[in-house]
Amino acid sequence: MTDILNKTIVLVLNRNWQAINVRTPQEAFCMMATNVATALEIEGENHIRPVTWDEWITLPIRDEDNLVRTTRGSIRVPTVIVAVNFAKVPKKRPKLCAKTIRERDGNRCQYTGRLLHPDEGSLDHVLPRSRGGVDSWENLVWSAKDVNQRKADRLPHEAGLKLLSVPRAPKELPVTAHLRNAHGVAEWKLFLNDKA
């Protein structure tokens, strides 16, 4: 069961019980053993109880629990822990990729304003790579494929094009907005607004 130790299946909450991160059981056990975090014993919505490491290692194993076997016996893997001395909700900017550029630009060609299906558009470097352009929020826009081909390695004005708006980096969002329950952990639904 050592592979379970390295799966990101433990939700981390701040001391205000707001989701801030996802960790592996191995990391969660270290946080709990050093009193940086407490685990939450969750039995339905109405029974949620913080549990220290010393008590956690003595809790009985339930059928639905993931567990880790040690020389001293089996230990339940927590699904949610609370970082007891951490109050902030960190902010994070979305990852720079075609999908996030397309979302930022509202699925519209930034030269024509035409609404595009994902397969009708592509990334365009406002300042082409061949002229020193880099992959950045400020230099990438979503463009219709035919417009992008027509522009080629020219600046927009050289190709007779004009940007509808100046490309900017999106605002940082609370990290909670980026957390997803990829493993379908039932207890996480109490703390995440994940639609998946």
Describe the structure in your own words.
With 196 residues, this protein is an alpha+beta fold. It folds into 2 domains: 2-91 and 174-190, no CATH class; 98-159, DNA Binding (I), subunit A, CATH 1.10.30. It has helices at 25-33, 53-56, 98-104, 145-151, and strands at residues 10-13, 19-23, 37-42, 48-51, 67-70, 73-76, 80-83, 91-92, 121-125, 140-144, 173-174. The longest helix is centred in the N-terminal third of the chain and has 9 residues, at 25-33. The mean pLDDT is 88.
Question: How would you describe the shape?
Answer: elongated
How much of the sequence lies in strands comes to: 15-25%
The number of strands is 11
As a percent range, the share of helical residues equals: 10-25%
Q: Return Rg in Å.
A: 23 Å
Task: Identify the strand order in the major beta sheet.
Answer: 2-1-7-3-4
**Element order, helices and strands?**
EEHEEHEEEEHEEHE
Major β-sheet profile: 5 strands, mixed
Structural class based on helices, strands and sheet pairing? alpha+beta
Mean pLDDT figure:
88
What descriptive keywords fit this protein?
single chain; 196 residues; alpha+beta; DNA Binding (I), subunit A; 5-stranded mixed sheet; two-stranded antiparallel ribbon; 14% helix; 23% strand
Topology diagram in text:
Elements: E1 10-13, E2 19-23, H1 25-33, E3 37-42, E4 48-51, H2 53-56, E5 67-70, E6 73-76, E7 80-83, E8 91-92, H3 98-104, E9 121-125, E10 140-144, H4 145-151, E11 173-174
